[in-house]
Amino acid sequence: MDISHRKRTLLKVIVLGDSGVGKTSLMNQYVYKKFSQQYKATIGADFVTKEILVDDKLVTLQIWDTAGQERFHSLGAAFYRGADCCVLVYDVNIHKTFDTLNNWHDDFLKQTDTENPDAFPFVLLGNKVDVDGGNSRRVTEKKAREWCASRGNIPYFETSAKEGYNVDDAFLCVAKVASQNERDLDIYFRGISETPSEPEQQSGCAC
Ligand code: GDP
Ligand code: MG
Predict the structure, then answer these.
(1) What is the CATH number of the domain that holds 84?
(2) Residue 90 CA: which ligand is closest?
(3) pLDDT of residue 91 exceeding 50
(4) Which pLDDT belongs to residue 190?
(5) What confidence tier does 66 reach under pLDDT thresholds 50, 70, 90?
(6) Proximal ligand: closest to the CA of 36
(7) Which ligand neighbours the alpha carbon of 18 most closely?
(8) How far, in Å, from the CA of 22 to the mean position of ligand 1?
(9) What per-residue confidence (pLDDT) applies to 160?
(10) Neighbours of 56 (CB within 10 A)
(11) Which residues cross the membrane (predicted)?
């Protein structure tokens, strides 16, 4: 398919969640198809990029990782600025990482410059579902989905960065909701009041 003539879009994606939940691993699995057991609190680059087709349009995801600063819960407004989507990650085997989602979610909205906080697209990933064949799980899928519903129908995926389970599907959804956000902002800044001819759902995605 010839897609070279189409407009390219850069979408900024922020990945947040407690230290150790697998944020860096999910990004490495998605972008490089690699997984490491070794725990590394820092990475060299601020972000990685990946091109992906969304509804026949090529977009570039610019996915921002933290360099371990999440341990201090102090990422700063510069890190969040201009984000098109925020991916929240918790570890299904450690309940505390689920409890802190409220903080990450609220902190993001507080720090970011988004025009419409209620409509800002988040995606939640419940990671490490492979551990112990699911026997050490502490947060049920139902509970996670209830939290998503209470926060404006955030799309939810259960993932394993180790096995690559659901990782591509999750980031395709991220790309879709981020694209939608970018289109909405575009319309906002051009001052066009009418809605797009084929409105898409803001928080749900057809994934
Ligand atoms: P971060 O601090 O959120 O960036 O977490 P990391 O990506 O550094 O991962 C922390 C640890 O969890 C590392 O030892 C990873 O190998 C491990 N890990 C990450 N994702 C998974 C997963 O899906 N399954 C398993 N079993 N281990 C994982
Ligand atoms: Mg990390």
Answers:
(1) 3.40.50.300
(2) 1
(3) yes
(4) 62
(5) confident
(6) 1
(7) 1
(8) 4
(9) 98
(10) 8
(11) none
* Strand 9-16 versus strand 156-158 pairing type: unpaired
| Of residues 149, 197, 161, the one with CA closest to residue 33 | 161
Q: Is residue 134 part of a domain?
A: yes
Number of domains in the chain: 1
Distance 9 CA to ligand 1 centre (A): 30
CA distance 174 to 196: 20
Q: Is residue 31 helix, strand or coil?
A: helix
Domain range holding 164?
A: 3-195
Residue 95 CA to ligand 1 centre (angstroms) = 16
Report yes or no on 191 lying in a domain.
Answer: yes
Please give the structure tokens belonging to residue 77: 């407004």
* Identity at 166, one-letter amino acid code: N
Ligand 1 center–CA 138 separation, angstroms: 17
Taking CA atoms only, the protein residue closest to ligand 1 atom 22 is 128
pLDDT higher than threshold 70 for residue 1: no
User: Kindly report the CA angle at 47 between 36 and 123, in degrees rounded to 5?
Assistant: 80
Cβ(29) to ligand 1 under 6 A? no
Residue type, 15: V
Tell me the pLDDT tens digit for each residue of 25-34. Answer: 999 999 999 9
- Distance between CA atoms of 64 and 86, rounded to whole angstroms? 10
